Amino acid sequence: MQDETGLLETFDDKVAKEIKIEPRDWMPENYRKNLIRQISQHAHSEIVGMLPEGNWITRAPSLRRKATLIAKVQDEAGHGLYLYSAAETMGITREEMVDQLLTGKAKYSSIFNYPTLTWADIGAIGWLVDGAAIMNQVPLCRTSYGPYARAMIRVCKEESFHQRQGFEILLTLCRGSNEQKDMAQDALNRWWWPSLMMFGPNDDNSPHTAQSMKWKIKRFTNDELRQKFVDICTEQAKILGLTIPDPELKWNDEKKHYDFGEINWDEFWKVVNGDGPCNSERLAARVKAHEDGKWVREAASAYAEKRNRNN
Ligand code: BYC
Q: pTM for the complete prediction?
C-alpha cells in the first residue's frame, strides 16, 4: 500500500505522461472537487442552454428549420446527461447536483441568461455560442480525467454540427432582404459581447486557471481561447458581411492576432451572480420542469423496484 506521498507521485506522473486518471485511481481531494465543480457547471449549462433555443421551436420559419432545431436542443439534453454521468463517477449524486442547480447554488454559463428576441438569435447562438463552446471544449477532449475527456469527444462532434446550422441560418438571412440582414446584424450586436464572456474572467482574475492548467484539466487559459475565438469569428463575419460591434477590433500585425476592446466585467459578474436579464426566468423554468417530471421519476423508480423484486 502506497502512502499519500507515493500516491501523489503516481498521480503526477500519470498526468505528466498524458495517462488518463480514471474513477478508481487515487486523486488529490482538490482535483476531485475542482472537477466536480467544473463538470457539474458544464452539465447545468447544457440543460439550461436548452431554454433560450427551445423558445423558438414552435416559431422556426420552416419544417426543415424546426426539425433541425429540435434535434439540436435534444443534443444539448444528451450532453447534459453525459456530463452528469461523468461527474457522478467522482462521488457526487445526480440528486445533489440537480438540487444545487434548482436552489441557485450552482453556476451555469452566463450566456444562457440573455433572451432570444428574433429568429436571427438562433443563428447567432449556433454561430457564436456553439462556436465558443467548440473552441473551449475541443481541448477538453484531452483533459486529464478519462470520463470527462471521453464524454467531450461526442459532445464536440455534435457542437460542430450546431455551429454550422447557426452560421447557415445567418448566411441565409444575410443574403435575403435588407430587413433580414438588419435582423442578423442586430443579433450579432446583442450576442457578441456575451459570447466573449463565456470564456470566463481574464487570466489574472481567474482563481482556478493556474491549478487547472497544472493538472491538465484545462489545456488553454481563458484569454488564450478568447483570442482564438475573436481571430476566427472576425474572418467569418466578413463572409457574412456583418460588422462586429467593437470599434477597437483591429488586426495587430506584430502579434498576428486581432486586438479587441474591453469586456464589460461588471455586467459579466452581475449575470454570473444571478442578476442577468433572464436568470430568474431560467431557474423558474427548470424548477417547474423538475416538479412536472416528479411523477415520471416516481413511476420509473417504482417500476425498477418491482423488476428487482421479481429477479
Ligand atoms: N458563466 O477561475 P475561473 C455550452 C465562474 S455550455 C458563469 O476562470 P474555471 C453550450 C467559474 O465557474 C457552456 N460562470 O473558472 C451549451 C468560477 O466560479 P466558481 C459551458 C462563469 O472553471 C448548450 C468563477 O467564475 N461550458 O457551451 O477555471 C448549447 C471564476 O472563473 C463563467 C463549460 O462549462 C461564465 N461564462 O473556468 C450551446 C466548459 N466563467 O465555480 C452551448 C467547461 C467563469 O469558483 N468549463 N465562471 O464559483 C470550463 O472550461 C471552465 O469552467 C470555464 C471557467 C472556462 C467556463
A: 0.96
